[in-house]
Amino acid sequence: MTDAPEGGAYDDFLPSFSGWRQENNMLRVIATLFASVFFGVCMPAGAADISAYQRGVLIQGSIQKGDYARLIQFVRHPDNYGRFARTVYLDSPGGDVAEAIKIANLLDKSYASTHVASGARCYSACFILWMSGVARHVSSGATLGVHRIHVKHGEDSVDPQSAYFTRLARSVENYMSGLGTPRAILDKMNATASADLFVISPRWLAEQQLLAAMSYRLGFIDAAQASCGPEPLAMAMKDRAAPTGEDERQWIGQLKRWINCADELRASNQRGDGVTIAALIAE
Predict the structure, then answer these.
(1) Which of 52, 83, 207, 216 suits 113 as a labelling partner, its CA being 20 to 30 A distant?
(2) 3-class DSSP assignment, residue 64
(3) What is the pTM of this model?
């Protein structure tokens, strides 16, 4: 069973893209679908940094040292094994990169999905967590953003031109590349000052033909296509033909069926039982 919140419909999100020119209709359709795979989730006010949410786990707020240990303590509770392996919801402005990588390693091995819900944001170090999901979702009204890492030595910021900064930045980039982060995203990250933010919009992803790559882990999407058939987003971008009328409705239905099939495949590989999660925690 997948962990998709209910509510909303595809047509509800069309107005936000209505200003696009007709020749961009395929990009409009695809980008809208990417932004509204799951619908209508609002983040709870005043939630704890790590808490049960929906049928998953919510990580909310700035990522700080010690958060990995708090997450481990949370996941060790028997009621939370399955939650962690289903979906990790994210709402964070970023924070400590090293701590984020520790959490991402555990999330990566758990075969969970990651989700930025409506009204939430996932910036900077949080983006590493999002990319560690097998399936990655962004609701309409949520935002993803990246920028260059900010390194401090004591109380002082490290010069981005220094050899020390370069080594750390390359290490982070290599880790993100291993998660399947597209080169275009890494280039935008490196080109954006740490005080600024590059917002990864659905439209930009569609134009760069990165929607499928950003939605699913590379190895997983191969397995999903073997089980569920060709991935509709990639096929549509190859054709460059915008469906209209009844064809559009049929294509949307096909895409949603493919997404459900892929999520069922992911769920069948979830490592949510107590023994397995305990082994991951002990590593």
Answers:
(1) 207
(2) coil
(3) 0.77
The residue ranking higher by pLDDT, 53 or 18, is 53
Helix axes 274-282, 67-76, angle to 10 degrees: 150
Cα atoms in the 13 Å half-sphere on the side-chain side of 148: 18
Kindly report the number of other CB atoms within 10 A of residue 24's CB atom: 16
If residue 187 lies in a helix (H) or strand (E), which one and from where to where?
A: helix 183-191
Determine the pLDDT at residue 121: 94
Which pLDDT belongs to residue 219? 85
Residue owning tokens 């936000």:
16
pLDDT at 33: 43
Number of domains, the chain = 1
Give the pLDDT band (50/70/90) at residue 7. Answer: very low
Contact present, 193 and 107 (Cβ < 8 Å) = no
Could you report the per-residue pLDDT of 205-233, keeping only the tens digit for each? 888 888 888 988 888 888 989 999 988 77
The dihedral formed by the CA atoms of 35, 40, 46 and 47, expressed in degrees to the nearest 10: -80
Q: CA 109, CA 86: separation in Å to the nearest integer? A: 12
**CATH number, domain containing residue 162:** 3.90.226.10
Give the residue numbers spanning the domain of 32.
1-283
